[in-house]
Design goal:
By secondary structure, the protein is mostly helical. It has helices at 5-19, 31-38, 42-54, 79-86, 94-97, 104-122, 126-130; strands spanning 58-61, 67-70. A two-stranded antiparallel ribbon has the order 1-2. β1 (58-61) and β2 (67-70) form a beta hairpin. α1 crosses α2 (31-38), α1 packs across α3 and α1 (5-19) packs across α4. This is Rrf2 family transcriptional regulator.
C-alpha cells in the first residue's frame, strides 16, 4: 500500500481548512497559516496545493489576503480524493505488484489491500474527520466459504 507523507500532509492541511470553514465564498486561508497550524513547510505545501488545485479540490485567491479555499463543501470531499490528487498511486508499491518473480497470489493480495484502503477512504469525507466520525468505521469482512459444508 502506498500512502506517503504527501497524502497524509494533504489530508492534514485540508482538514484544517475544513475545521476553520474555509470554503465557498468565505475568506481564504494562506499557506503560511496552514503551515503554522500543522507545523509543515510552506514550500512543501506549495507543491501539494498545486496538485490539489489541478484536481479541483481547492481554489486559489490572489492578492492581499489571498490564499486557498476548499472548492466544495468539506462534506463532499473524500479523503480518497485528496490522497489521489497528491499521490501517484494508492494501489500498492510497484515492487509488490509488478516485480518479476512475485507470485500472482501475492500480487493479488497487495492489489486487493490497495482497493480496500481506497474503499475505506472513499467513504470518509473531510467533514467526517473534522467531526471525529472515523473511529470504528472499519468493518470486518466475513471469511469466504471454503467449500460445501459437511453435515
Amino acid at each position: 500500500m502506498r500512502l506517503s507523507t504527501r497524502g497524509r500532509y494533504a489530508v492534514m492541511a485540508l482538514t484544517e481548512m475544513a475545521r476553520r470553514g474555509v470554503e465557498g465564498a468565505g475568506a481564504p486561508m494562506s499557506l503560511a497559516e496552514v503551515a503554522q497550524s500543522q507545523m509543515l513547510s510552506v514550500a512543501y505545501l506549495e507543491q501539494l496545493f498545486g496538485r490539489l488545485r489541478r484536481a479541483g479540490l481547492v481554489r486559489s485567491a490572489r492578492g492581499p489576503g489571498g490564499g486557498y479555499r476548499l472548492a466544495r463543501p468539506a462534506s463532499e470531499i473524500t479523503v480518497a480524493e485528496v490522497v489521489d490528487a497528491v499521490e501517484d498511486t494508492i494501489a500498492g508499491p510497484p515492487e509488490a505488484t509488478e516485480a518479476p518473480g512475485v507470485p500472482q497470489e501475492q500480487r493479488d493480495l497487495w492489489r486487493e489491500l490497495g482497493e480496500q484502503v481506497r474503499l475505506f477512504l472513499s467513504a470518509i469525507s473531510l467533514q467526517d474527520v473534522v467531526d471525529g466520525r472515523t473511529f470504528g468505521r472499519a468493518v470486518p469482512v466475513p471469511p469466504a466459504p471454503t467449500g460445501p459444508e459437511e453435515g
